[in-house]
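Our consortium's second objective concerns turning raw sequence data into structural hypotheses that experimental partners can test. To show how far this objective has progressed, the report includes one record in full. It was chosen at random from the queue rather than selected for favorable results. The single chain below, 70 residues long, was entered without modification.
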Amino acid sequence: MKYKLRLDLKLEGTSFYRIEALKDFSDVKKGDLGGYVQKESNLSQKGDCWIYNNARVSGNSSISEDARIG
């Protein structure tokens, strides 16, 4: 596991969860907070993919491999 879901945020009736890094990878350090996902399947636990700042990923969208959003 490279991240966990941390905080709940409601926007327009949809719940989002903030991601928190559980280990160092690429330019992300353990404990860094990333953006928001609607569900865990929106961001892969593999590769160096990450969601930065206040970016949100939802629905059937999936960030994987080395993709970076933010």
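The partners drew two points from this record. The chain has no helices and six strands. The beta strands are 3-11, 14-21, 33-37, 50-51, 56-57, 68-69. Both points have been shared with the crystallography group to help prioritize constructs.
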